[in-house]
């Protein structure tokens, strides 16, 4: 008989993504998490309990249909709550051709749950997609947790679990990501997912407990202020600047700087929903008024005084376009509300996602390649590093002729 897990952390918001090879049980795991967390409608839960245990995987059918319709960039999200925490699951497909989806999902996650079918691991050899997903998650700076699935089909063999644990430990060491927690589970029966049970030798936490205990990301409100200006609004004698607080907090009286000109200003009022407020935190849509006159346009960023801007930087770039990236061609770079021309000056190396090795310098990138590039921009861009600020350390590239999104980038180094 399964026992309730011992979730102990206080209320938190945890964003995690699931990744795994086809048929490793990722969809079943998502269904199990939703079912055992009690967030399904009563008729949905009853149909699964009574006669259709395979229906767990069918709960993600809507996501599969979206992919069949050719939605290849967007990632579907599922939200659920427990008394201890709220969870946002980013569902990323397992096929290699959808690597770009995984990058998108990882960019919005704090934790990656890698699902491994224990019955498919022979002689300690992990599947290529398992290695690929782990490498991308490591590249994006996520905490990794491994759900060793289908243990019920192996009679809960501790020996097989330890084989998988050792194999993934070796992979983690090669990726330089340190210790990773592995949990033996059965997504089909639910053992060790939300509720403990089934493996008499397992004294560790359930998967949900491990997720709940993962490294808490630094709160967005604790970071330096960043408000990309989306619109300039004019009253009779007053100008207001509208945008979303990407990180930090803003209050009347705050000293800030505006745009790459680093124009100093004092916040006079902060409005949310048309009403003046004493403060606004990350996530709020605000309207700012300054004391005195200032030259502010869409694309500027209202920031704390420690902000820097650069025109040249190094970034990891995931190429999303069927058309290859060619070194020396100009693209449109979008960072927040800023748009400017960008030139790919150098492709330093391409990450081999199978073993995380690096190629020699390249002259072009193909679909799903992830490479370290050097980029020069016409206008200064925020020098925030992705490792410090996911929201403002990332950018997108667009093809100026087709206006299609063709690349997603993360800034890793800036040059004066």
Mean of residue pLDDT values: 83
Secondary structure tally: strands: 26
Helix content: 10-25%
Strands of the widest sheet, in order across it, are: 3-4-2-5-6-7
Largest beta sheet, briefly?
Answer: 6 strands, mixed
Instruction: Catalogue the unreliable spans.
Output: 1-10, 69-73
Structural class: alpha+beta
**Shape verdict:** globular
- Strand % is 35-45%
Radius of gyration: 23 Å
> How many alpha or pi helices?
8
> What is the quaternary state of this protein?
single chain
Q: How far is it from the N-terminal to the C-terminal residue, by CA?
A: 62 Å
Please provide a written account of the structure.
- By secondary structure, the protein is an alpha+beta fold.
- The chain is built from 8 helices and 26 strands.
- The relative contact order is 0.12.
Question: Brief overview, please?
Answer:
This protein has helices at residues 26-36, 42-51, 55-58, 61-68, 99-107, 128-139, 158-175, 207-212, and strands at 3-4, 13-20, 76-81, 86-91, 111-117, 143-149, 181-184, 195-196, 226-234, 239-244, 249-250, 255-258, 263-272, 275-276, 280-281, 285-290, 301-303, 309-319, 325-326, 330-335, 338-352, 357-358, 364-365, 370-382, 394-398, 405-415. The protein has 416 residues and is of the alpha+beta class.
Present the secondary structure layout.
Layout (H helix, E strand, L loop, with lengths): L2 E2 L8 E8 L5 H11 L5 H10 L3 H4 L2 H8 L7 E6 L4 E6 L7 H9 L3 E7 L10 H12 L3 E7 L8 H18 L5 E4 L10 E2 L10 H6 L13 E9 L4 E6 L4 E2 L4 E4 L4 E10 L2 E2 L3 E2 L3 E6 L10 E3 L5 E11 L5 E2 L3 E6 L2 E15 L4 E2 L5 E2 L4 E13 L11 E5 L6 E11 L1
């Amino acid at each position: 008989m399964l026992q309730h897990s011992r979730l102990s952390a206080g209320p938190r918001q945890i964003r995690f993504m699931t990744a795994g090879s086809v048929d490793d049980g990722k969809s079943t795991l998502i269904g199990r998490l939703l079912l055992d967390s009690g967030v399904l409608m009563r008729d949905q839960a009853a149909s699964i309990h009574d006669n259709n245990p395979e229906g767990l995987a069918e709960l993600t059918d809507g996501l599969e249909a979206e992919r069949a319709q050719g939605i290849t960039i967007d990632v579907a999200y599922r939200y659920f709550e427990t008394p201890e925490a709220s969870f946002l699951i980013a569902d990323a497909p397992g096929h290699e051709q959808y690597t770009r989806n995984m990058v998108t999902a990882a960019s919005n996650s704090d934790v990656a749950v890698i699902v491994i079918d224990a019955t498919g691991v022979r002689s300690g050899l992990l599947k290529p997609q398992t290695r690929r997903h782990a490498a991308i998650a490591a590249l994006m700076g996520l905490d990794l947790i491994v759900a060793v699935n289908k243990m019920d089909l192996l009679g809960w063999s501790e020996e097989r679990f330890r084989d998988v644990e050792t194999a993934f430990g070796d992979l983690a060491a090669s990726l330089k990501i340190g210790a990773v927690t592995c949990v033996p589970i059965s997504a089909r029966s639910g053992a060790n997912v939300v509720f403990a049970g089934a493996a008499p030798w397992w004294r560790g936490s359930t998967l949900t407990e491990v997720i709940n205990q993962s490294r808490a990301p630094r709160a967005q409100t604790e970071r330096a202020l960043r408000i990309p200006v989306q619109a300039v609004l004019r009253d009779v004698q007053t100008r207001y600047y509208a945008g979303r607080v990407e990180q930090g907090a803003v209050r009347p009286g705050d000293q800030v700087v505006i745009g790459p000109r680093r124009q100093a200003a004092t916040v006079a009022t902060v409005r949310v929903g048309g009403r003046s407020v004493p403060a606004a935190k990350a996530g709020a849509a605000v309207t700012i008024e300054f004391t005195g006159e200032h030259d502010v346009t869409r694309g500027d960023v209202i920031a704390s005084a420690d902000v820097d801007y650069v025109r040249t930087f190094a970034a990891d770039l995931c190429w999303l376009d069927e058309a290859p990236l060619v070194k020396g061609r100009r693209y449109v770079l979008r960072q927040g509300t800023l748009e400017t021309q960008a030139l790919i000056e150098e492709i330093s190396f391409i990450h081999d996602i199978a073993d995380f090795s690096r190629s020699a310098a390249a002259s072009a990138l193909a679909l799903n390649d992830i490479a370290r590039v050097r980029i020069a921009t016409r206008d200064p861009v925020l020098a925030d590093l992705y490792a410090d600020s996911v929201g403002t350390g990332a950018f997108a590239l667009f093809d100026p002729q087709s206006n299609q999104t063709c690349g997603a980038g993360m800034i890793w180094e800036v040059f004066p």
